[in-house]
Amino acid sequence: MTRELYPTARRENTVDLLHETPVPDPYRWLEDPDSPETKGWLLAQAELYAERRGPQRFKSRIAELLRSGSVGTPSWRGGRHFFIRRTPDQEHAVYYVVEPDGTERALIDPMELDPSGLTTLDAVQPDKEGRLLAYQISVGGDEESILYVMDVTTGERVEGPIDRCRYSPIAWLPGGEAFYYVRRLPSTEVPENETQFHRRVYLHRVGTSTEDDKMLFGQGLKMTNYYGVSVSRDGRWLQVSAHEGTAPRNDIWVADLTASPIDRPELKVVQEGVDAQSGLVFGRDGRLYVHTDRDAPRARVCVTDPAEPGFETWRDLIPEDPEAVLSDFAILDDLERPVMLVGWTRHAISEITVHDLETGERVGEVPTPGLGSIGGIAERPEGGHEAWFGYTDNTTPPSIQRYDARTGETTLWAASPGAVEVPPVRTSQVVYQSKDGTDVRMLIISPADDTPGPRPTILYGYGGFGLSQTPGYSASILTWVEAGGVYAIANLRGGGEEGEEWHRAGMLANKQNVFDDFHAAAEHLIATGVTTAGQLGISGGSNGGLLVGAALTQRPELYAAVVCSAPLLDMIRYEQFGLGATWNVEYGSAEDSEQFGWLRAYSPYHHVQESVPYPATLFTVFQSDTRVHPLHAWKMCAALQHASTAERPVLLRNEAEVGHGARSVSRTVDLSADVLTFLARHTGL
């Protein structure tokens, strides 16, 4: 495709001088989504995409495989339990309650709230007795959660709407008369460009005006802080935590609510100013359990007295494992010998071990259905001998498993409700070496037949924020492999697959390691005959969009096609848009001269070069995305369309009324089909 066929995009002579370095920004004008020029350019890009999109392949098969539906881990409150499930024909999952007699009722159906499908359920939290339910919804993908409270018995709203509750935890006090929550300050009280920030912790009494809510915490602290809040089951202990943006460290305080008023709790420091993450669980046995990576990058569990919770009192219960990352735990105490179930990921594969609660001695393991991913382990708040956990792998839709500590058996408790015929695939985990000799793991999903390659292949990666890429059911992956392709997922540095050291090896000054790991994954796939450079497509979204943006600018000859979704690409100005200011603890800030150097070295938008035959590239962005502004993709698209000499296209798929996260199933199917169609066309599938 020649550049003359692309919509006209004016190039400005805009140059910023930062730390004595000129930084060109020829498409700065595309940062204004409301300007007539930007709107005209987007309209022309939409027409170009519609013209070049071609017949949509794979759509019916993706939809069929998504008819598996899904099911979530139960939350027990009193005699009731709550869970989420999506049946084959539902656009969104529905939140249910099950009464003690087994009667099941739908409590929140997003499609009943809004038949357009644009409303999503963001979060839910039943009170401690299971009589009231706090839930948060948002519309059109903006993730600006509105908080309501429902009477579980009648289904009637008894509270709300309460706005500005994005990412708010809800910590109920016993009796359901009040809860702690997190809310942003009103826009009238903060500068215009800071309305996404400035969170505070409040106490709200059900049935009273939010004007009367008592602000408890956050005043005078950093505007980019996120806060956590929880209350122990007996109502005695309040826990407040603070993260600076997405930093891999937090501060924690606790208060004894029997010794100070609930609206003026006396908070005592557990951890402050320490470069580590910790979380607290107040046990039914009176002990405080600490899940921490302090002095243990792969995490450990310690115990202490909640009245004296400082670090110097912590005692190891479950020590750090040299190869596995400790992810979560649950306590089962209705036994002669109470135990702790401990969840681990060992090189991205989940397992659960059983330990004596008093000594930490390993006494067994929980049988699991296979080599896959385990969701959070749930117990009854009042104690018991049972636990529930989610399970999925590359060919198994989500299911809920029940473990009985008295018998040592795991049984299927709830399966995804749809019956689908999953294609046979072969999954293997390989180890390859990155540029600096570091061993990196990669999951490869390929057709079950033994036909030799090379095959059209999609390489996926993320590599950031300590997030692990683990096996999971994916209609899109299965559809691609069933059609004869290979799908590879690289466990890059920057993720959490090997613990916090692995994360930090791919953040801040070390970010290039992530890109090197990705290039090495591609080279390994080519060298081992899985694929060729002409058959290799790469895909990533959000931080993974940054990854593939860097990959296509650093090694354009290595990839035939790129799908770059909701990406960060202008790493010099990213802090000024969306939630960017909360991510400088992961990437660095252009305001600092040394950190500017890190960012400038790889910022994809600033490394687009004239007269380079770039891969076929599809940007998929979402107009209501309030995390990563679509302007990143708009500017990069314009730059690539101007610079590339390849006949392969650079296209923009700009979708309205959806955002960075949850969406309806039909929207998911359309996006997935467009992505696979594009990659198939340009890798030869």
From TrEMBL:
Residues 473-684 form the Peptidase S9 prolyl oligopeptidase catalytic domain. It comes from Nonomuraea marmarensis. PROSITE patterns: PRO_ENDOPEP_SER. Keywords: Hydrolase, Protease, Serine protease. Residues 7-414 form the Peptidase S9A N-terminal domain. Belongs to the peptidase S9A family. This is prolyl oligopeptidase. It holds the Pfam family Peptidase_S9. Its EC number is 3.4.21.26. It comes from the Bacteria. InterPro entries: AB_hydrolase_fold (IPR029058), Pept_S9_AS (IPR002471), Pept_S9A_N (IPR023302), Peptidase_S9_cat (IPR001375), Peptidase_S9A (IPR002470), Prolyl_oligopep/macrocyclase (IPR051167). It catalyses: Hydrolysis of Pro-|-Xaa >> Ala-|-Xaa in oligopeptides.
